[in-house]
Structure of Sugar ABC transporter permease:
Amino acid sequence: MRMVESRATLTISYIVLGIGAFIALFPIALLVLNSLKPAALIVQNPLALPNPIRWENFVNAWNHAKFSKTFINSLLLSGTTIVLVCSTSSLSAYVLARRKIASWKIWTFYLLATTTAPIQLYIFPLYFGFAKLGLINNVFGVALIYTALYSPFAVMLLRTYFIAVPKELEEAALIDGATHWQVFSKVMLPIVSPGILTVALIIGLNSWNEFLIAATFLQKADKVTAVIGFYLLSGQYSSDWGEIMAAALIIVVPVVVLFVAMQKRFIEGMAGGSVKG
């Protein structure tokens, strides 16, 4: 009886997982399918097989969206944000994890509030402030905004990693003559590296896909990111949907490849960050 129940449970689990996989993969499959078809065939039947296969959609999408330039802007923006967030958040999280702070509940409320507060609340005063400072159309200026936006989440996550590290390791290093900076950089950072990698992956993906802030603060044609370049492909009166699908696939592929390659580390990092402090 138990064997029958276990087989039924296993069968149901596979069915549910299969349905979930289909829901997750169907949009990507449809994107790949339509990126190889002319626009007329897409409008006629989005589910039809491409006949003939139109490889020039990718060439046209790359040239018209200026991906040779916008990809560099996106990589520069995402990379700068990752470096700033990981460096500042790791320092802040270490202090919050190792020092007894009487006002920790206030800091927790502040970090949670800034994590959940929508950017639309302060995007206009932020824009005028950046305009006064001459930071409009500055990729590094936008990276500063991303850093402020994503740091609270990173601090909360990394703090749980530092809390999980035994204090005896720090005490032993200090007894051996290490400075506090050496303890942090040589002892603590290697141990919490899975958490830092997880933060880097999440921040990188968010920075790569972010649209509102990039569209507001990066307005020159040579400063826009790949996501904005993709958005500009859609015309006011007509659009080549095959080209648009190809451009979307070009943007999605690096993200999917990176996530698949780092999936194991990402899951380990999120699991390690679940320790409650």
Observations:
- The chain is about 75% helix and 0% strand.
- The domain at 63-272 is CATH 1.10.3720.10 (MetI-like fold).
- Residues 273-277 have pLDDT under 50 and may be disordered.
